[in-house]
Design a protein that fits this description.
51% of the residues are buried. Strands 1, 2, 3, 4, 6, 7, 8 and 9 form an 8-stranded mixed sheet that branches. Strands 10-11-12-13-14-16-15 form a 7-stranded antiparallel sheet. It is α+β, with helices and mostly antiparallel strands. Helix 16 packs parallel to helix 23. The chain contains 23 helices and 23 strands. A hairpin with a 4-residue loop joins strand 7 and strand 8. 30% of the residues lie in helices and 12% in strands.
């Protein structure tokens, strides 16, 4: 590795340390940052947009009646009367789709006063509710028009619609003259669409989600995937041409290339919700297994999926699984969006054995894990790490702390090869050949529609214009900017592993928690020393407490999973030629090169990884100065294991810290690197004089004390020459000593963590439009960010922020795009004065919300955090670092005087 890590774009954390961080008014800032430079305008006409993103084999025939034209002509949106637009819009849309076949016809719902929770009940408390103005049903479903749905849910809708009163509310408008900015209020209109799209993507396992934004008379289609969003050209709902385009959009939306009635464009053909028959079979199969290991099973959230093992054009039958329990979910929109499910194989598809045998009922129930994620195309697929693991660690007895992948592939690669085969007019060996796949006709369609023969797409010069773009791999950046943006695209992975577990925060006893982390460290060591794989993203979500594993495996309490951000040596350590790198493990290559023609600095795009709360203190300062970055090594991951234990203890164990539940927010800061680093160092120095005690749990108290001592020696010893890095031997020996003790308490299971309230806030309003300015009220959104290609291709950092490249930033897992958002700078005029005012405002906000010690650090910080709320981001200035240094010096003096 060489060079510096890329700038980090802060986002709202998945885990909130304070109650305030769970509120919409604080989460919205993270959303603003997440969507920056991720919204593209489609630079062509609406017809080309529809052909590109909504391919259909069923021809559209316009049918705009006089009644629709009459309703549209009377539609008069007015300022301050947004809600008055809902009823006429519902009537217009209903009339536009009235001639659709009944099993393809969507209905429209005006549930603007109702809040819709995050799709998965076990994680809904982490995310604020959405409130779309209008919603669209699945084809063939009829939503009530004269009453409200009781407890509406995302599963009932296929699309969301947001309505604003005026044409000038359009947040996608291009500014031709000069550089102008979007206010937070207008940026939040993008956030509303993004939140709705995120919920739809997760609720249905969609590959892409469509939303409508209506701004006065202007209508925009916005297509979201996990790489970016693409907005259509504007359509005027009061014109015949605009109505035709809207009608064609709905027609194409409910007539996808693959799938019959009831499906939509963007739906994954390999995924479906459970039928009544599926649910009955699942309940019978899991039986008592639905108890303790799983807790409550939400059968309405479960889904049926197909899993392939091959990405090549070879005859293959997929395996089918029923995913019935979400173990973990990364709910960010433009990210890996990782989901981990407990599942069982759908053995009903297997042939029956013997007369009278019922398919799927004879085999022993085998519980497994399915992981779905959207990896960056520039990164090495996780499957390759498992292949290395399988080739170097073959004996099951050596796989303690490590899972085993039993099925799966890169669905994106497979989908691209399937598309390329169709483009070349060659047969695809599996049943899902694009050239043989025809949309199923509607049951009640007219005879002229049903009997119409649709010939195979015409192949012209090797290109099939009507073929749908592969959707298991995103193409949004390449379609809107160019092929050079491949590094920003994402590919859908679906893997099945053999070991079933539960999150660390569901431990049955503190000894079980410690043993799980211990086994994960053992697996980490084996993986590095035998496989040449460094994990680089140790976090609370990437360690599971083992519930069930195959009989041939050596029993263990914990496993380390999620290798999509790992690094791998060119050769396994035992196979490497010692003459290549004498006495060293071969140099790590964290990224997959995209080809010989790619620039040499491709690897600089993503050099820093790690979940922010657990990142090593050394890595927070790895970009200081103009020298080389700190290379991520084993001792950084070992440090992360210790921070994971501290995190879980402070949140889920009854401890003796005087700040109680607030203690976690004192140690784990989010977004500001200086504050995050100093908080951990200060915690270590405080523990030197007042160790954290766990009442009635001497083994855990002593373990934490010893680990704190080891971290202090590694991180805060003065002089630096006295510091000693963490090693596998010392860390594992410390855990072993604790585990061998006989005085562990029994059944001290995890306590639920309720984020504490740290400040008084008016929480009455939860509407985006009524939100007051956030702590980063100086943030503005450049209109050019939405449309301009120059910053994304030729100049990742716009001229106004070039000076910030001198202070480079780390890259963390799930915070993955390479540009520094240009909206961190003000407009060209009076930029200096605006920045000063912004710093003053943020300093006041930080001091008012932080605790006593953290408020002192915030006085010198440009972007001080607010009790770990995740509403701020970026590195501090020189003043911030000096304030932090003074705090550390004071704490060290105190520690020496007391010691």
């Amino acid at each position: 590795m060489s060079g510096h890590p890329t700038p980090r774009v802060p986002k709202a954390p998945n885990e909130a340390n304070t109650y305030e961080a769970t509120l919409k008014k604080n989460q919205i800032h993270g959303w603003r940052l997440e969507i920056c430079q991720k919204v593209r305008n489609f630079d062509s006409d609406i017809d080309n947009y529809l052909r590109t993103f909504l391919s259909s084999q069923t021809p559209y025939v316009a049918a705009i009646g006089a009644d629709v034209l009459n309703m549209a002509s009377k539609f008069e949106p007015k300022r301050g009367m947004e809600k008055e637009s809902y009823a006429p819009l519902l009537k217009i849309f209903t009339a536009l789709v009235a001639y659709f076949p009944a099993d393809r016809r969507p209905s429209f719902y005006g549930g603007y006063e109702q809040r819709i929770p995050f799709p998965f009940s076990d994680f809904a408390h982490r995310h604020h509710k959405s409130k779309p103005d209008l919603a669209v049903s699945w084809p063939g479903d009829v939503l009530p028009s004269d009453r409200k749905i009781e407890s509406p849910h995302c599963r009932q809708f296929s699309m969301a619609i947001e309505v604003k009163a005026l044409n000038t509310d359009d947040p996608f408008v291009k500014y031709k003259n000069g550089r102008r900015t979007l206010s937070n209020t207008r940026a939040d209109k993008l956030v509303q669409l993004a939140v709705n799209a995120r919920n739809l993507l997760f609720a249905h396992g969609l590959l892409a989600a469509f939303t409508l934004g209506i701004y006065g008379e202007v209508v925009r289609i916005v297509r979201f995937d996990h790489a970016c969003a693409v907005a259509s050209p504007p359509m005027n709902i009061k014109t015949l041409e605009g109505l035709r385009a809207i009608q064609e959009f709905f027609w194409r939306f409910v007539h996808p290339w693959e799938g019959g009635p009831g499906t939509v464009v963007g739906a994954d053909p390999t995924v479906r919700h459970l039928t009544a028959e599926d649910k009955a079979w699942l309940k019978t199969r899991i039986g008592a297994e639905a108890g303790s290991p799983f807790g409550k099973v939400h059968f309405e959230e479960a889904r049926w999926v197909q899993v392939w093992d091959s990405e090549d054009n070879s005859p293959a039958e997929p395996k089918a699984y029923i995913l019935f329990k979400v173990v973990d979910v990364n709910a960010r929109l433009f990210s890996r969006s990782t989901m981990v499910w407990k599942c069982i194989e759908d053995t009903r598809l297997r042939p029956r054995e013997g007369p009278g045998a019922q398919a799927g009922d004879q085999e022993e129930l085998v519980l497994q894990i399915v992981k779905e994620q959207w990896r960056q195309c520039i990164r090495t697929p996780e499957k390759e790490f498992y292949d290395r693991m399988n080739s170097t660690i073959k004996d099951p007895a050596d796989r303690i702390g490590l899972p085993n992948m039993v099925h799966g592939c890169d669905m994106g690669k497979r989908d691209v090869k399937r598309w390329e085969t169709a483009v070349a007019s060659k047969p695809w060996q599996s049943d899902d050949d694009l050239l043989r796949t025809h949309a199923e006709p509607s049951e009640d369609a007219d005879e002229s529609e049903v009997d119409r023969e649709f010939p195979a797409p015409v192949i012209e010069r090797g290109y099939v214009p009507s073929l749908p773009i592969p959707m298991h791999q995103t193409h949004s950046w390449r379609l809107t900017v160019g092929a050079s943006m491949m590094a920003k695209e994402r590919s859908h992975m679906r893997l099945v592993v053999d070991t079933v577990g539960r999150p660390l925060d569901q431990f049955g006893s503190t000894k079980e928690l410690v043993m799980a982390i211990y086994d994960a460290i053992r697996g980490h060591r084996t993986l590095m020393e035998r496989g040449g794989i460094l994990h680089r993203d140790v976090s609370s979500g990437n360690i599971l407490i083992v519930d069930k594993q195959p009989r041939e495996r050596v029993p263990c309490k914990g496993i380390l999973h999620d290798y999509d951000y790992s690094s791998m040596t060119k050769k396994p350590p035992l196979a490497a030629d010692p003459s290549d790198v004498p006495g060293q493990i071969p140099a790590l290559h964290p990224l997959e090169r995209m080809g010989d023609n790619e620039p040499e600095n491709v690897a600089e795009l993503k050099e820093r990884t790690g979940t922010y709360y657990f990142i090593s203190v050394d890595l927070f300062g790895s970009s200081e100065g103009d020298g080389d970055c700190v290379l991520h090594d084993t001792h950084h991951d070992l440090e992360s294991f210790i921070w994971v234990l501290v995190w879980i203890v402070l949140r889920h164990v009854r401890h003796g810290h005087k700040r109680g539940r607030e203690a976690c927010s004192l140690v784990f800061k989010y977004g500001d690197d200086d504050a995050a680093s100093s908080a951990k160092r200060i915690w270590l120095m405080d523990c030197a004089t007042k160790p954290l005690s766990i009442p009635g749990n001497s083994p855990l108290t002593d373990l934490l004390m010893k680990l704190h001592e080891m971290l202090s020696i590694a991180l805060v010893n003065v002089p630096v020459s006295n510091r000693r890095r963490l090693t596998y031997d010392t860390v594992l020996a410390t855990f072993e000593t604790a585990i061998k003790r006989e005085d562990w308490p029994k059944d001290d299971k995890a306590l639920p963590f309720v984020p504490p309230k740290t400040e008084k806030l008016d929480t009455k309003s939860e509407d985006f439009d009524n939100d007051p300015p956030t702590a980063l009220q100086g943030v503005c959104f450049d209109a050019d960010v939405l449309d301009s290609d120059e910053h994304d291709v030729d100049e990742p950092n716009p001229p106004e922020v070039k000076h910030q490249k001198k202070r480079t930033h780390e890259r963390f897992a799930d915070e993955e795009e390479s540009e520094l958002p240009s909206f961190f700078t003000e407009t060209r005029s009076d930029a200096t004065g605006s920045r000063k005012r912004q710093r003053n405002n943020q300093g006041v906000a930080a001091r008012s919300s932080a605790g006593p010690r953290s408020s002192r650090a915030a006085r010198g910080s440009v972007r001080g955090t607010s009790g770990g709320s995740g509403t701020t981001g970026g590195r501090g200035t020189v003043g911030s670092r000096r304030a932090v240094e003074r705090l550390i010096e004071e704490a060290m003096k105190k520690a020496r005087s007391s010691g």
